[in-house]
Amino acid sequence: MNKNPTGKTPAGMSLRAAARRRPGLRFAALVGPGTLFIVIGLLLPLLSIVVFSFWRTESYVLYADWSLDNYRTLLGQAAYRVFFLRSLITAVLVTLVCLVCGWPVAYFIARHGGRYRLLLVLLLAAPFFTGIILRIAALQGLLGPVGLINMALSLFGMPPIEALMYTPFASGLGLVYLFVPFMVTAIYLSLVNFNFELLEVAKINGARPWRAFIEITWPLNWIGTAIGMVLVFIPCLANSVTPRFLGGPNATSFGMSLSQQFGETGTWALGSAMGVFLFLASLLAILLIAPTIRLKRSGFTGTSL
Amino acid sequence: MTRKFGPATLSMSVALGLIYIFLYAPIFYVIYTSFAEDIVWPFPPSFTLSAYSDLFSSSLYGQALINSLELATGSAALSTLLAGAGAIGLLRFRSRFRGMVLLAFIAPLFVADLLIGISILAFNARVLGLPGNLLSAMAANAVQGTSFGFLIILAQLVRYNWDMDDAAMVFGARPWRCFVEITLPTIWPSLFGAYLISFILAFNNLEISFYNLGAIPTLPSVAWGSLRFGLGPELFALASLVNGFVFVIFAVMYLLMRSGVVKFGYRGQ
Known about the structure:
By secondary structure, chain A is mostly helical. Chain A is about 70% helix and about 0% strand. Chain A contains 14 helices and 2 strands; from the N terminus they run H-H-E-E-H-H-H-H-H-H-H-H-H-H-H-H. Chain A has a two-stranded antiparallel sheet with strand order 1-2. Chain A starts with 14 loop residues before the first helix and ends in a 16-residue tail after the last helix. Chain B is an all-alpha fold. Helices cover about 75% and strands about 0% of the residues of chain B. Chain B has helices at about 5-35, 50-55, 60-90, 100-105, 115-130, 135-155, 165-170, 175-205, 205-210, 220-225, 235-260. In chain B, helix 1 crosses helix 11, helix 3 crosses helix 10 and helix 6 crosses helix 8.
């Protein structure tokens, strides 16, 4: 039995003190690889596009000529402003729609789901994992221009629903379809840790249900709501897929234009500047919402984390 | 807790029903139509398996399936390993870096797929000089996979009682042996769950894989290319199969949780 293979601990030192010296090392050995991986796989790439955003591309090659040209193009040309505003408005609206749809659903499952709670929430989460392309294909099969609904209308001699025919509305509806599971799951995870007996107390003290909701349920579950909003907002802001397949010619989004810089046109430097812009916009959203979260008013205080 | 269903509860249950219809109507329609002879107007029903036989006889989809499976297998293994070690380290040992480490592990959830895809592409190509291939796509997908896996493992591990491990160590077990004989038998379902989830994510990912694979096709990228020319019967068949695959995995996870093998949440000691 070798309790102390390093042999560094003096004989007089207690076992406890020896154990206390090792945790730091073992903590580093366990969390180190993952942290390092995320630094190399997320932080350094993001920093590299910050650098490239000040460079220049010529015939698909990046040259280290430092300038602000890409940002000048980005802020100066009306097209990019339109793309960004379109993405921003869509992302805000989609987030709000998901919020309004997500709350009653999450609340119902958490409070009245009983033994079917787990089943109900897994069924909501499962479609997300099919991947965006196949989900959009499925949505098109039902709502698209030659989808079931419009075909049925034309069969009965009625005009198709214009809003579903390659419009920004169709693109936004696609986003709600893609990301509403995130919102429900985030709110649900907060609600399952919420003590519903507090509502009984409020009722006994004479509070009406809506008042109890506004003063107790909503603020105490704000953390789940806020995380859900961020998790929906960020991919919607960067969205490049639904406008391409559902949006038609007037729906080009910032993300779609960004993906073209790295695909068809090969202007990586401008694309990097757009990426930086997009990242800063999502970071701003997080920074705006983070101070409103107070961990002490969430259900997560009881744990050691 | 009262069990009386008032008008508020009733309208919430209606909302629940509408969300399920919204989420599942397209999926059921796709599965139904994948067996139909006419995909544009599949009524009255006339069933055929031609969409599936087209899909299986296509060498492009076959190659894409193999690539997707390889990508997902490798990416999920890397994710689970990093996430498992990270979650154990974070919960077991106190450190002043805990907050920073936690932040690092969940940060990828807050960066859009598109940004992860293009930034890793730019970093690999220009800084490291690596071409896009299956390995770089595995690593790129594992960035988000690690975050999802980490949350799943953490959710189960907060309930874990480390006293058992401490007891084993007092009796002289080395850390690795202690992990294999005491920790692993208890926590394997969450590692398994993390593997499955990061597997499906990498398997179905479009934007991260697309930019880091060079010209190598995967199922989502072939589906993307095909969808540009409109909905074909083979896309209906593919969507049905992938949905079936995801639901089988979720059924396995549900049964594991239902039977009490896995317990999530903060309840209990």
